[in-house]
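User: Could you check the structure of this?
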Amino acid sequence: KLSSETIDKVLYSVGANPANEAGAMNEVLYRLYKVSKNPRHLALAKIFDRDWLVVPLAANKDILNGLHSNTHLVLVNGFAQRYSVTQESMYRDAALNFWDMLMNEHAYVNGSSSGPRPNVTTPTSLTAEHWGVPGVLSNTLTKEIAESCVSHNTQKLTSELFSWTADALYADSYMNTFYNAVMALQNARTGECVYHLPLGSPRNKVFLKENDFRCCNGTSIEAFASLNSGIYYETALWVNLYVPSRVIWKDRVLEQTGNFPNDFVVEFTLSVKKKSDFELNLLLPSWAKRAEVYINGEKQVAEVAPMSYLTLSRKWNNKDKIKLVLHPDFYLKTMPDDENVIAIFYGPVLLAFDTHSELVLKGAPQDILRNLSRNEDHTFSLTDNGRIYSLRPLYEVEGQAYGVYARIREY
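Assistant: Sure, the predicted C-alpha cells are below.
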C-alpha cells in the first residue's frame, strides 16, 4: 500500500548496521510461492528485490564495500530463489557474480566473510558485520569477523549455485566452509555457538549463552539441523561431502562409512533390487592431488584432477563396494593483499595454533611447509625458529587461545 518512493526509502539499506534490515523476506516468500502458487506471494516477494542492489551485481560491479554483510547476503539468496521461480537471467547473473566477488575479494580462507567497515559510523562497524574494500583483508583481523549468520547463508547460496551448474568449484568451496566455518562455530561439548569466528592471533572463541538469543543462535540451530543437506545431489548421484550417511535414491541405497577428515579412506556400499546403470560422481577436492578408487577390491583406472569429479559409470550390482582413497598434504593460503600473511591447511582442514601471543614465523613458505608434521593423535606440529608450535583443526578449538593467520618474515 506504500508508494514506490516510500518503499525505495524503506529498503535502501546501505548504511552501517541498517535499522531497515529486511532479512530473508524475499527468499521466504519465493519459497512460499513455490508451495502456494499464490500470485500475491510472488508479487510481495518481488518488492524486496531492489534495483540498486541487483542491477550492478548482474553487471558484475562490486558494490559490496561498506555494506552490512548479512543484510545483503540473504537478499542475494532471495535473488537465487527468484531465478528458480521466474527464470529471469538478471537474477541468475546477480547471484553468480555476487558469489565470485564474495569468495575472491571479500572472504577469508575458511569461506566466511564480514568484519570492520572502512567508514566507521557505529560501534559495531568498527570491528564487525560489514564488507570492506575488495581484495583488502589483511588489516581486518579484529576479534569479531566471520559472523556465523554469514557462514551459514553463504553455504545456502553455494549449494543453490551448485544445483544450477554441478560445478566442482562450488562443491569444493562448500566443503571448505563446512569444516572450517560452520563446524568451527559450535562447541562440541556444550552445543554453544559463537557470534563471530576470529582468525587473527591471539584470539578466543566467545561462545553465546543459552539465553542470549542473538541472530547467530537461531542461525546456528538452523545450520546444525541441516548438516546433511549438502552431502548428496541428484541428476546422476553426486557425492560432495564424505560424511558417514545413508541416502535412498530412487530404488537404490548408498551407505557411506569412514572417519573423514581424520582418515582419508571412504567406503560405500550399494544396495539395488536389480542390476542398474547409473553414474556415481565422487568429488575430488582442490587439495586432492592424488587419489585411488577401488570397486569390489579391484583398483580402477581413473584420471585424477583436483577440483573435479571422479565419475563411475557402469552396471551396478547389489552389495557392490566402492573405496575412495584421498591423499592430503600441507599447503598454505595467503591474504589477497599480503602474501606474507598465511594460513595453514592439511587437506580440507584449516589448522589453528595453540598460542597466547601474536604469530610471527620466520622463514619462506617452503620452510614452513617442510617443518610441518602430523601426529598420531591427529594434532600437528610446526618447528620454526627454535620453537615447536602445536596446531589442531580450528573446529576442535574450544576454550583455549588460538591463532589462524600468521605473519611470516623470511629473515
